[in-house]
Write a structure and sequence with these properties.
With 238 residues, the protein is mostly helical. It has one domain: Ferritin (Up-down Bundle). It is built from seven helices and no strands.
């Protein structure tokens, strides 16, 4: 599997407890007898299936709380397509979907369920914020920043939990040479960039640095939360 020397700076997302992942047999085809992935590719694909579900479920909850802001429902519909794309890859590579029975906000313990459940709860708990709407929009933007990192590189939770993966180059788009995954992950990246731009547009239209300086740069623009400011500005065309 290929590796890349490109590094991506990290900013802490949340103080989340990490649980060990009960890793199934890796490498070789699954029960479907299809093309082969190694263990790192398998764990990353299943993780991304759950992470796309996380985004969908968070936007479902926030859209219900803020129905006048279509950005949540619009992006939720897009995330449903992302979930479907990951499911298609799971079938293509003969794997079993660990989240098939999960309802909204539910995540199978066998696929980093504790991590995703705690993250879901944190990102949907916005009522106590000074501005619940602003916090909801910021959480949406945060999800998209996090998603872009986790598509390209091995998510921190996987590195921490899976003994055979020791750094961010041990799984992800920059690791795999499976063409179907590279194509699907590229589509996810395009979607996440578009979603980030949509959230930032609503944030900057409805809120200002004068009222909420902690969430804006010195220039009064959206402040990056997980990626570097340079990376976010490039995505936003600044």
């Amino acid at each position: 599997m290929k590796k890349s020397p490109i590094a991506l700076p990290l900013i802490a997302l949340l103080s989340l407890s990490l649980v060990a992942f009960a890793q199934g047999p890796g490498g070789g085809p699954g029960t479907g007898g299809g093309p082969s992935l190694d263990a790192a590719e398998e764990v990353h694909l299943l993780f991304m299936r759950a992470e796309e579900k996380l985004a969908h479920d968070v936007y479902l909850a926030l859209g219900a709380e803020f129905p006048d802001y279509a950005v949540f429902s619009n992006i939720m519909d897009s995330e449903a397509k992302h979930v479907e794309a990951m499911l298609n890859n799971i079938v293509h590579f003969g794997l079993t979907d660990p989240n098939i029975l999960d309802g909204p906000g539910e995540f199978n313990a066998a696929n980093f369920g504790a991590y995703f459940t705690e993250t879901y709860n944190a990102l949907t708990a916005v009522d106590a914020a000074e501005s619940p709407l602003l916090q909801a929009l910021l959480n949406g933007a945060l999800i998209e920043e996090l998603d872009m990192h986790d598509i390209i590189y091995c998510p921190e939770v996987i590195v921490d939990a899976v003994g055979d993966i020791t750094d961010q180059y041990g799984c992800g788009m920059e690791y795999t040479d499976a063409k179907a995954l590279i194509r699907s992950y590229g589509n996810l990246l395009d979607g996440s960039e578009s979603h980030l731009r949509a959230f930032v547009r609503v944030i900057e239209t409805n809120f200002s640095a004068l009222d909420y300086p902690d969430f804006f740069t010195e220039d009064g623009l959206y402040k990056a939360q997980y990626l570097s400011q340079e990376e976010v500005d490039e995505i936003l065309g600044r």
